[in-house]
Amino acid sequence: MLKSFQTALLGATLLGAALASPAHAETKINALFMAQAAYSEADVRAMTDAFTKANPDVTVNLEFVPYEGLHDKTVLAQGSGGGYDVVLFDVIWPAEYATNKVLLDVSDKITGDMKTGVLPGAWTTVKYEGKRYGMPWILDTKYLFYNKEILEKAGIKNPPKTWAELAEQAKTIKDKGLLATPIAWSWSQAEAAICDYTTLVSAYGGSFLKDGKPVFQTGGGLEALNYMVDSYKSGLTNPNSKEFLEEDVRRVFQNGEAAFALNWTYMYNMANDPKDSKVAGKVGVVPAPGVDGKSTVSAVNGSMGLGITSTSKHPDEAWKYITFMTSQQTQNQYAKLSLPIWASSYTDPAVSKGQEELIAAAKQSLAAMYPRPTTPKYQELSTALQQAVQESLLGQNKPEDALKTAAENSGL
């Protein structure tokens, strides 16, 4: 009797445990994003909430760091045996990440629809030596933003089409007393400055490397830095540009303190938001200018991708999350701060409505995106170039000498 009671009790206990346990074992994945530019933190959280509602057996723990900490955070976590399953990475890192086995090669996961549907330029964000190390997610370049009201007051009918014309228009605005320093750039000693520099290198038809060796110290690379120094010394550029990152440029522009600014896609709708911006409704945007006889527009590839770390214990769930975040449906829904990677999105009225001017500029700029150098030693090269830019702006070194030193310190 006692034995049968114990058996019944055990059976009831097991049944209760079975009923109490969830139908699916929950998988937790960790994802690392940046806390600036492109999609906002609120957007990423909303996208992720939609994913977890559709996939209740997966929980996503989100971490946001400034762009400047994204690379090192990823690499350090890798060295300590993991921590992240999904990481956001810049177009400049696949060479290093592939060489050091930071990311998984996901070439075999890319479907035919992905290959044909995503813009060809976007795929360059995640490729290295023919392999794909994730999905492109943020398709971005720097545009020239301008304050329509200030240009109108200065009697300027059209925004500049060349960098020389930009300087002329800025001088007109300054001479008429409309703004003391009409141009804002992000020239802090950081990657932001290299993005501005690359935009100008593309305009002047320059190159970074030839046969793996630096050539930026001559030709278009030198002309680009000379333009930056001339603009800074002329008094047309906000002198604080040497300390500005992109968010500083955005704040200055939307406070009405700049007639011209070079910045990423996200600034268009933020600067047009009347809740936070003094220039809402006055924001113009065009492709970054060209140089007579050399280019009609200029653009840097500032795109970013989502990849799976090689130490991830949940690569299947990580890939499911990445495909959701980069899907056309998700991207079209959040197209106000970052434009979609999908070609057919640009004919969707829901994407273009209210930002027709930006879409028109994007069609030219995205086709002209110029890459920063593809090399596993990109970090060393960028650091050397950042120093060269800063020294040149501060008058501590001549541009040709600063770039020569950068080439010697690039590790190439």
From TrEMBL:
Compartment(s): Periplasm
UniProt region (Disordered), positions on chain: 393-412
Key words of the record: Periplasm, Signal, Sugar transport, Transport
Signal sequence region: 1-25
Primary residence: periplasm
Ranges in coiled-coil conformation: none
GO CC annotations, alphabetized: periplasmic space
Entries under InterPro entries matching the protein: Bact_solute-bd_prot1, SBP
Family: Belongs to the bacterial solute-binding protein 1 family.
Protein name: Multiple sugar transport system substrate-binding protein
